[in-house]
Amino acid sequence: MISQSAAQPDSLDISAIKQARDRIEPYVVRTRLEKSDTLSHRLGAGVYVKYELFQKTGSFKVRGAFNKMLGLTEAERSGGVVAVSGGNHAQAVAYAARQLGIRPMIVMPESTPRNYVAATEAYGAEVDLQPSIADAFARIEHYRAEGMAFIHPFDDAQVMAGQGTLGLEIIEDLPDATDVVVSIGGGGLMSGVAAAVKGTNPDARIWGVETEGADAMARALAAGHPVRLDAVTSIAKTLGAPEVSQATLDYARAYLESVTVVPDAEAVEAMIFILERLKVMTEPAASCTLAAADRLRDKFGPESKVVLILCGGNTGVRDLCGYLP
Question: Which of 17, 145, 300, 314 could tie 304 with a disulfide, CB 3.0–4.6 Å?
Answer without folding.
Answer: 300
